Structures are given as structure tokens and as C-alpha cells.
Amino acid sequence: MIRLSNTLVGALNILSLLIGLAAVGTSIYIHVHGGAATDCQKVLQYPLLIGGIFVVIVSTLAIIGSMWRVNVALYMYLFVTFLLILWLVFFTFFALIVTNKKVGRNIYGERNGEYRVNDFSHWLQRYVVNDKNWDEIKSCLMDGHVCHNLALSGGRNNDSLIFKHLSTTQNGCCKPPAYCGYTMKNATYWEVPKTGPPANNSDCTIWNNKQDKLCYDCNSCKGGVLANIRNQWKHLTVFNACVLVLVTTIYVLGCFAIRNNRFESLSNQPRAPNP
Fold this sequence. Notes:
By secondary structure, this protein is mainly alpha-helical. It contains nine helices and four strands; from the N terminus they run ααααααββαββαα. It has helices spanning 4-32, 39-43, 45-67, 71-100, 122-128, 131-143, 168-173, 202-206, 219-268, and strands at 151-152, 162-163, 183-186, 189-191. It has a two-stranded antiparallel ribbon with strand order 1-2. The longest helix has 50 residues, at 219-268. The radius of gyration is 27 Å and the shape is elongated.
């Protein structure tokens, strides 16, 4: 009789097998419909494929080991699970260090929600603010239409336009920094001051009213994205901690499943006749 631990390991890994197959299917769909896929979606193609295949293989080992009582498969599964636990522990602590090394400071206080690149950890700066990664991020921002429908009309005059609650990314990328002194004509059109933009800050001259330009190349945009990433990683550390507890529980159940398989194998062996 298959014990409860074997059943739980098998059931949980059937679920993960379905998730892995869904990831592989999504990757194949993006590849087949490559012409219709956005650049941001194409970035996910290979991570989904590799991650999906990995989950399918590991889940299959667990199902074979727990449901068909093949201990060799369970040992392989537990070895991979142990490595996964180590990686989750490392990544959780790494994310905490990266996101808390420096607390992002506001340029003009929380009301404007504008950040500087230098207010974040050097690792985040190197990973995000480089030509290759930033081009991909900028493409995703445009594909996601983050700068559309930013304001609500508060009256008859354009000057009475009121911005919705903007994210840090929208604050940095979709309008010129507050210190530039630009005059808002509508949600995405700003007029340069008569005295010209401040010469001591490049963001003020980089700003462009064209929808594919705006402030996507501004340091304020990069700072806003870094602030968003920092906030997401903080939530991710909580999620990782929950996953770590779940994976550790499954690992313990797998150890019990191996023990159950051994007991069943011993009980099924013919006993030597009494002399």
C-alpha cells in the first residue's frame, strides 16, 4: 500500500508537471507566432522553455519514484530539490541585500516620486542601466503602454489636467523631471520654459514629446524603473520564503517516501523458511 507521503509527493508533482508543460507550451506558442509577439514577450521565450523542461523532468522523476516506488528516481529528485533549496536560500538573502543596501531617496520628496540612479545598489545599477538590458526594458515599457492615459481632465483648461496616481516608472519615464520647470499642456506634451531647459541636467534636454521618445532615455526613467524593481524584489523575497517552506516540506515528504519504498520492498521479499 502506498503511504500518504508517496501520494502527496505524487500529487504535488503532477501539479508542477502541468505547470511545466504550460510553460513549454507558452514558449512554443511565442516561437510559432514570433511575428505577432512583442519584444518583451520574446525575452521570455527561452527562460520559459528551459524552466518548463526542467520542471517537467524533475516532476517526472518524483512521480515515477513516489507512485511506482523507484528509489533511484526519488534519490535523483531529492538531490535536485536539495540544490533548489540552497538556491532559494541564497537568492532570498541576495535579494534582501541588493534591495536594502541603499534606500532610494526622492529628488523632491515623495510627492513627485522621482528617483536617481545613484540612490540604488551598484549591482542593480550595473544589471539594469546598461545598453543591452536597458534597450530591452525600454521596449517592454513601450509595448506595455505605460505612458498612456496618465491624466484625468479636471476642468476646461489644459492647465487643470490632473494626473492619476502614477507609479515610480511612470513618474520617471512619462514626464520631464519637476526640476526642469516644463509647462504641462496635456498628459504627454510639455512646453520648454522660455528661458530654456536647465543646462546642468541632461534629463531636461533629453525629454521629447514624441510618444516613442518621451523620457525613456532619462536618468529619472532609469531611477523610476530601479525603484519599481526594488519594490518588486522586496515582495519576491516574501514569495521566495513561502516557496522555500513548500519545497522543504516536499523534500521531507520525499525522504519519507523513500523510507516507505524500502519498507514495502522488504515486506514483499519472501521470507526464508524456518529450519
